[in-house]
Specification:
The complex is a heterodimer of chains A (about 350) and B (about 550). Chain A has about 350 residues and is α+β, with helices and mostly antiparallel strands. Helices cover about 40% and strands about 10% of the residues of chain A. Chain A is built from 8 helices and 7 strands. In chain A, strands 1, 2, 3, 4 and 5 form a 5-stranded antiparallel beta sheet that branches. Chain B has about 550 residues and is an alpha+beta fold. Chain B is built from 18 helices and 16 strands. In chain B, strand 6 and strand 7 form a beta hairpin. In chain B, helix 12 packs across helix 13. The longest helix of chain B is centred in the middle third of the chain and has 19 residues. Chain B is globular and about 70 Å long. The chains are: A alpha+beta (about 350), B alpha+beta (about 550). At the A-B interface, helix 7 of A face helix 12 of B.
């Protein structure tokens, strides 16, 4: 279930782009229109060219996105050549010099990927596991949030996609995006602060190995005894024939179960890292900057004055509060007060 | 298997740094090709004087003055090489260094291209480099530098070390006369006022017991140029084993030379592949690239900032100011001013004792003897044989120090463990390798320029370093190091902080000095850095092999 990993949803959706162009405007195909709409998205205020731009990325209007990406996937081409040993192919009558079919996408697709906090309300703790239906709810909550914060941009892009025509509300968009959803098979994620306590699902390799090997070795031993004509296992007194058969069978069953267990263990989502939700990340960026300034300004203070200054710092910047005195999404630093969510922001 | 290099085909400045003691003087002369015929005649004449990498049988057979040559992309264009050859040249070489100023941090990175242009961002460059490669000309600028001839010269004699041998002037005259005879234009305009005919450079001379002698220092007073990389085939095998210590790579078998292809085209590199080259293959084989950078040193700002920070540091650490000055300087660089690495001699007290033990510090030391002992130490493996993986936290040598940025050694091995105990003990990481570093090494050629140490220097006097940064890929090696390791700090857990010595400090002015927990002192953050080193011009050059020079001279570069 790689859609959910480390408390994040790694969303992948693909919406097929309509063929052709609107009859009243044949110069720009629907595919071209998607590209134009995407090109018009403002980038985040994070480079010299955009840092003072009045428009920020529309994805900076919500507090769940760690990363979002929309692009047009024009085609993927698989040339279909399935390799095979020539001798085997000859025996099976497969003619390898005859070209195999080339597989392609049936249309260009708008791909939308995002790495988001797997929560339904901003600031909720990140979950370690989520059932399929809860994941669906989380995705829908995110889709609704997008619709509420960037409806116009979404319309500009998705109106060129197949099946979008009836979408009129946040719930409609959530349903639409769910139809476009495909499973993410390889999520990427950032680092854990503390590897030792990260809660990884380490495979108990030795117990599994010994558990499987014990009945197999015992069975093999008894098999040898049986071949040499021993009727009963020494000390235990069990009859050798059924004992070796049952032992080897048990070993085989356990080996199968161990493999199944290892695969299931690997499929379990990793636990979220501490402070891995977007509000915490933004707050830590803010504190990192403010604390560096505090450190530099107060380097030579004697302990009592340092203590007092630190008390003032804590009161002003409120490190435990992830919702105020924090950096806004989509900006490069907290140096400009306009980039900071202030304490009274919720009331103004 | 080891392949012997054809040293007679490789230019001498690729394998040799023309050391500051044997060749303390250099001269860089620049030309423009008005037409391909003149260019070919000029190359044909100069190539016959070029000093190759062939080994000198003994000290006496060293030339008094060496000659080397390199071309810019506009130079190759002016030679009218085939388009198929030119179009496969690396992007950054085609664009040239000025066009790359944004990524190199040579101009304010918070300005857009438009703002930078309006600001006339390169107005402090030497006129020659302001006029070369005008924006928008892409290889066809009327004042473009096309070719550079490099002369390196020995001193007049063992007794008169601070003037160059007459051979330097003789060779200069010959080169200028040849250019005139061939119809090639000599471009002047070097220096802040543009009043110098060529770029002169020399070791920084210092009064040692009454005589001016070449030092291993640059104008801030740091000992420089100790850890130049060593690559396969560069040195005779009998000296390679020792030379490679601290200058090669660590891959689990002790110090080994880097792959030839990291520095010379046409040979396998550290990815075990041939670096990409333009056709025909023999045109670029045994050649390489370098960035020529005139780096001005703001000696006044540097001394003032160090003094101000040292006074605060001295208060916090409870030490005398002169100890604080020496310590801060060493922590910024990674070596003490006499070249002793912090990684081996981490504290001030140990450093003082080390200099006394080695015989170059103390009241009873005869200045010349101390000078000779120090130079001998700098040239020894002792001065280079250390690692950073045993000091991940930078307690000895700070993580953001200049040296740790320029050559990360084994610090970036992804398997390194970090952490510090309360008593300052760190993991040894004994098996750490040069992973993520061995593809980012650069050969440093070049010399300081400016007056000797007995002269007044400030921000406005002209002094600095002519840096020649050589490698098979300017993009992968020089530009990466400049952009990611000098002008940015994330690989060293330094955030946006830039190199304390070479970095631009217009925006980011901080440098952190970690503290050993057992000292009981806090870390110290310098916060008032100014831009101490600024580029005053330069460009990217191709260093052709002797074969390539001959092909260009004959006009038979045929890529088909």
């Amino acid at each position: 279930m790689p859609d959910l990993d480390s408390g994040h949803i790694f969303l992948t959706t693909m919406a097929p782009i309509k063929p052709g162009a609107p009859t009243d405007s044949p110069h720009s195909s629907y595919e071209q229109r998607v590209r134009i709409a995407l090109a018009k998205f403002p980038t985040a205020n994070q480079s010299p060219a955009t840092v003072d731009d009045p428009y920020n990325s529309p994805f900076a209007r919500n507090l769940r996105n760690h990363l979002a990406r929309m692009f047009v996937l024009n085609d993927t081409i698989y040339n279909g050549r399935i390799t095979q040993n020539p001798l085997v192919a000859q025996l099976q009558g497969n003619k390898q010099i005859v070209p195999q079919p080339v597989d392609r996408l049936n249309a260009p697709y708008l791909v939308f990927c995002a790495d988001i906090d797997a929560v339904e309300q901003n600031g909720d703790p990140l979950p370690a596991t989520l059932s399929e239906s809860r994941q669906k709810q989380v995705r829908a909550a995110y889709a609704r949030q997008l619709w509420q914060t960037m409806e116009q941009e979404l319309r500009d892009v998705y109106s060129n996609c197949y099946g979008f025509d009836g979408v009129q509300s946040a719930d409609d968009f959530a349903r639409y995006l769910d139809k476009c959803h495909v499973e993410t098979t390889m999520p990427f994620h950032d680092y854990y602060l503390d590897l030792d306590n990260a809660g990884f699902h380490n495979l108990p390799v030795k117990p599994l190995l010994y558990g499987v090997l014990a009945p197999l070795l015992f069975g093999a031993l008894v098999l040898v005894l049986w071949l040499f004509g021993a009727g009963h296992v020494p000390l235990l007194g069990w009859p050798t024939l059924p004992t070796w058969i049952l032992s080897l069978a048990l070993g085989a069953v356990l080996a199968y179960a161990a493999v199944k267990y290892a695969i299931a263990n690997g499929e379990k989502p990793l636990a979220p890292a501490k402070y891995d939700d977007l509000p915490s990340v933004l707050k830590s960026l803010y504190i990192q900057q403010k604390f560096s300034e505090f450190f530099i300004d107060n380097q030579e203070l004697p302990p009592d004055q340092l203590h007092a200054a630190f008390g003032k710092f804590m009161a002003e910047h409120d490190p435990q509060n992830r919702h105020a005195m924090t950096q806004k999404p989509g900006v490069i630093s907290s140096a400009d007060p306009a980039n900071v969510t202030l304490k009274d922001a919720s009331t103004t | 298997m080891t392949r012997k290099l054809n040293l007679n085909d490789i230019q001498g400045n690729v394998t040799r740094a023309y050391g500051r003691y044997s060749f303390p003087f250099a001269r860089y002369i620049f030309f423009h090709f008005p037409n391909p015929g003149a260019a070919r005649s000029f190359l044909d004449a100069v190539r016959q004087k070029v000093t190759t990498a062939a080994r000198w049988p003994d000290q006496e057979s060293r030339p008094k003055c060496t000659t080397n040559i390199a071309l810019t992309f506009p130079g190759l264009l002016a030679l009218q090489l085939p388009v198929r050859t030119l179009q496969s040249m690396p992007d950054e070489f085609i664009e040239g260094m000025k066009q790359r100023a944004f990524i190199l941090g040579d101009r304010d990175q918070t300005a857009t291209e438009d703002e930078a242009r309006k600001d006339d961002w390169d107005s402090h460059w030497d006129p020659i480099w302001q006029k070369s490669r005008e924006p928008g000309t892409l290889g066809f600028g009327k004042d473009d530098v096309h070719v550079m001839v490099t002369l390196n010269a020995q001193s007049q004699s063992a007794d008169v070390q601070d003037t160059p041998h007459d051979a330097l002037d003789e060779r200069t005259k010959w080169v200028l006369q040849t250019a005139e005879d061939c119809g090639v234009t000599h471009i002047t305009g070097v220096g802040a006022k543009g009043d110098q005919p060529y770029q002169d450079a020399s070791a920084v001379f210092e009064d040692v017991g009454g005589t001016l002698r070449p030092t291993a220092k640059e104008h801030f007073g740091f000992t420089d140029g100790i850890g130049n990389p060593v690559f396969e085939g560069q040195l005779p095998l009998e000296i390679e084993d020792e030379a490679v210590i601290g200058r090669g790579k660590l891959m689990g078998n002790g110090w080994e030379p880097l792959a030839t292809g990291e520095f010379i085209l046409g040979h396998p590199d550290e990815s075990q592949e041939l670096p990409p080259i333009a056709r025909p293959p023999e045109f670029m084989r045994n050649g390489t690239f370098f960035a020529f950078r005139k780096l001005h040193e703001n000696v006044g700002s540097f001394d003032a900032v160090v003094q101000e920070e040292a006074e605060r540091y001295a208060t916090i650490m409870d030490i005398p100011v002169d100890e604080a000055v020496e310590t801060i300087r060493a922590k910024m660089c990674g070596r003490w001013s006499d070249g002793v690495p912090l990684s081996k001699v981490p504290t001030y007290a140990e450093w003082i004792a080390f200099g006394e033990k080695m015989g170059w510090r103390g009241d009873d030391v005869v200045p010349f003897e101390g000078y000779v002992k120090n130079l001998k130490y700098i040239a020894s493996p002792e001065a280079r044989d250390f690692r950073y993986a045993d000091d991940m936290a930078g307690l000895k040598c700070p993580g953001g120090a200049h040296m740790r940025r320029m050559n990360t050694r084994d610090y970036l091995d992804p398997l390194n463990e970090s952490g510090v105990s309360d008593t300052g003990v760190q993991p040894k990481n004994a098996k750490a390798t040069s992973a993520l570093n061995k593809r980012r090494r650069i050969l440093r050629r070049g010399l300081p320029y400016g007056p000797p140490n007995n002269t007044h220097k400030d921000d406005d006097t002209e002094q600095g370093v002519i840096m020649i940064i050589m490698g098979a890929s300017l993009f992968r090696q020089f530009e990466f190091v400049q952009q990611q390791w000098i002008q940015y700090g994330l690989d060293f857990h330094q955030g946006n902080n830039t190199c304390p010595l070479l970095g631009s400090h217009e925006q980011h002015k901080r440098f952190t000095i970690p503290s050993d927990p057992k000292s009981g002192k806090p870390p110290y953050v310098m916060s008032k850095l100014k831009t101490f080193v600024e580029c005053r011009g330069g460009d990217y050059f191709f260093v052709p092999s002797m074969t390539a020079l001959r092909m260009m001279a004959m006009g038979i570069v045929d890529p088909t």
